[in-house]
């Protein structure tokens, strides 16, 4: 009864294929575009990535609340996928446009367009991710749907990362600035078409009771009063990450101590005296599966983001064949499609938690091998890279499927469901992890003296690229495997929650 038809799984996958024309393109090429084509320094670009992540912490939460409280004839989440598509395409083009500005104005332009891109992505992708949680109440079907989703995501990434260098060369004719812009026009048109397919082909089936819906205007106003408690932790983390000195460390420690006190007060408060947005936050903070997944999502995005963020540099300077990066991306993403599609079956055999731990350990171990692989041994580079990527592809597939399980857990425990807010954690840690990963790549390169406009600095930065392809990302994978050991939802418990909710919903 809960089995999804094939056309709906494929249609849903088309949405992430479209989104990844943006996400994979920005993640893999925006850093090298900023430093080597637009002419922004690595240090300035690193700060840009971090500052933009600060705004994401607020917008993702707001969008999750808005989506949960949306009422339309198309459902809660599907309308946002349709209406955001033109804006997402527009900012995709603007981000890769190079106006002839001064150095300061270039940086301002980069901030405005990149913030616009991430905001449009939030409006699109928070509802898109949450849609998975309401298309079916069955956790097994959600895992398979997540596999289709990420097969679509990797296909979209395949188009960008596999063919972008060649398309830039073709359209630009030696002018990279022109080539990037015209290529993005092509990708933006395709993105809009794919989003429309997702909107038309999907259906929302899990409907929260009307009594759970609060007044959006009053709850957003309430949220604005609590914005410092969202912004300050992100700001302190960003400053400590970027500056890594005594003052930023003290500020980070003070903010974390204050947040601990505030959270304890909120948790001890009588639930009858909480506003709707505060109740949502309490539900999240007492949802152990969601809290574990929040950390896991960040660590896996750091792992994958660092690996993808350094590839363009690695092939340009270590391998001395810039266009081979496109071939490497193609190989990785083809393997990723198989990894994502295999996840559902393997999860049935091993369980989601065990499969997640295995994928983190195996992908991390294979990634460390890059430290010893000579850059001129192309067969070994591709072999280890593809083997690690097969297991890495399972991480986001399992992560978003398990977010649906944590939404079920929250409804089962608290008799309230905030699917959009729970899934906003998915896009938040994606963008935050991706932003910190991109920034870490640039911080490490800058620490080794890298300057994309000065060839004399390249040789000094080669060891940094080698570390960024191996030990640095692998460390995040191993941390993720350790954290997943405390994930509490076993297959038996997940099955019980699904059955209990089915009975409860049938009695409404």
TrEMBL record:
Hydrolase among keywords: no
Pfam families given in the database record: MFS_2
PROSITE patterns: MFS (PS50850)
Recorded superkingdom: Bacteria
Transmembrane segments: 38-59, 80-102, 108-128, 148-172, 184-202, 223-243, 249-267, 288-306, 326-343, 355-373, 379-400, 421-448, 468-487
First and last residue of the signal peptide: none
Record keywords, A-Z: Membrane, Transmembrane, Transmembrane helix
Matches recorded under SUPFAM superfamilies: MFS general substrate transporter (SSF103473)
One GO CC term on file: plasma membrane
Protein name: MFS transporter
Species this chain originates from: Pseudoalteromonas carrageenovora IAM 12662
């Amino acid at each position: 009864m809960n089995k999804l038809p094939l056309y709906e799984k494929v249609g849903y996958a088309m949405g992430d294929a479209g989104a990844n024309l943006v996400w994979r393109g920005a993640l893999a090429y925006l850093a090298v575009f900023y430093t080597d084509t637009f002419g922004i320094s690595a240090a300035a670009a690193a700060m840009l990535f971090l500052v933009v992540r600060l705004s994401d912490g607020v917008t993702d939460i707001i969008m999750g609340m808005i989506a949960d409280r949306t009422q339309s004839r198309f459902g809660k989440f599907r309308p946002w996928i349709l209406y955001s598509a033109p804006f997402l395409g527009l900012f995709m083009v603007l981000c890769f446009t190079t106006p002839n500005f001064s150095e300061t104005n270039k940086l301002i332009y980069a901030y405005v367009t990149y913030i616009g891109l991430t905001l449009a992505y939030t409006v699109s992708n928070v509802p898109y991710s949450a849609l998975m949680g309401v298309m079916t109440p069955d956790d097994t079907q959600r895992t398979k749907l997540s596999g289709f989703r990420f097969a679509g995501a990797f296909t979209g990434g395949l188009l960008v990362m596999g063919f972008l260098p060649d398309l830039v060369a073709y359209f630009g004719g030696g002018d990279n600035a022109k080539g990037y812009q015209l290529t993005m026009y092509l990708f933006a048109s395709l993105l809009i078409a794919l989003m429309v397919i997702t909107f038309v082909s999907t259906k929302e089936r899990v409907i929260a009771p009307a009594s759970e819906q609060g007044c959006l205007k009053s709850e957003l106003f309430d949220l604005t009063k609590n914005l410092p408690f969202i912004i300050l932790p992100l700001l302190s983390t960003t400053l400590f990450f970027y500056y890594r000195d005594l003052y930023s460390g003290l500020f980070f420690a003070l903010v974390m101590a204050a947040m601990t006190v505030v959270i304890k007060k909120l948790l001890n408060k009588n639930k009858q005296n909480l506003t709707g947005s505060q109740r949502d936050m309490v539900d999240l903070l007492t949802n152990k599966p969601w809290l574990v997944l929040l950390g896991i999502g960040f660590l896996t995005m750091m792992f994958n983001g660092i690996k993808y963020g350094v590839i363009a540099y690695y092939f340009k300077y270590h391998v001395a064949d810039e266009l081979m990066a496109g071939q490497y991306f193609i190989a990785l993403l083809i393997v990723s499609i198989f990894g994502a599609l295999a996840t559902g079956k393997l999860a049935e055999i091993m369980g989601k938690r065990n499969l997640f731990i295995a994928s983190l350990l195996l992908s991390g171990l294979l990634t460390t091998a890059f430290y010893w692989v000579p850059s001129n041994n192309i067969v070994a580079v591709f072999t280890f890279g593809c083997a690690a990527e097969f297991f890495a592809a399972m991480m986001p597939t399992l992560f978003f499927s398990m977010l649906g399980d944590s939404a079920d857990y929250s409804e089962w425990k608290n008799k309230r469901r905030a699917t959009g807010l729970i899934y906003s954690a998915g896009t938040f840690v994606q963008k935050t992890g991706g932003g910190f990963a991109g920034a870490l790549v640039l911080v490490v390169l800058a620490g080794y003296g890298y300057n994309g406009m000065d060839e004399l600095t390249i040789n000094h930065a080669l060891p940094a690229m080698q570390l960024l392809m191996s030990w640095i990302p692998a460390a995040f994978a191993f941390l993720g495997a350790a954290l997943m050991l405390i994930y509490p939802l076993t297959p038996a418990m997940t099955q019980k929650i699904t059955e209990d909710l089915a009975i409860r919903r049938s009695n409404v």
